[in-house]
Amino acid sequence: VRHRLGSFGAGLCAVPPADGWRLHQHGRDVRPHLGGRGHPDYGRTEGEKSEAQPLHPIDIVASMSSPLMGHFGGRDGAIPVDGVHRLEAALTAAGKPSEIYIYEDAGHAFNNDTREQAFNAEAAALAMQRSMDWFGRYLN
Fold first, then answer.
1. How far apart are CA 35 and CA 101, in angstroms?
2. Which DSSP string corresponds to 15-41?
3. Which residues contact 80 (CB under 8 A, 6 or more apart)?
């Protein structure tokens, strides 16, 4: 029996930092979905490094071994869209299977329906549908 793992909302820079992204570096049978703004998880795609955050997603693109899907809010003040575009370009240049979506009218944590000021129902529904389609392709 062959098992596959899908990770939903693991966070771009989970605590401990980048653990969700580390899934991408281990094994061909790991097929995680990691979202930037499609789910209530948080983290920049790039930035200054520290002891607590020694790597950012853009730093490990070359060593990724599984497909990646990311959802980002176009109005997210915490995760600059320019960085999302650089991550997308790095994934494409490295030939990594990926889908990156930016929801122009959505902000930070747009899928978090417990935060009325952040929740964007239209973007959240579209991100969820795309995510379920993604899992259907990669986990079957």
1. 9
2. SSTTHHHHGGGS-TTB-----SSSSS-
3. 44
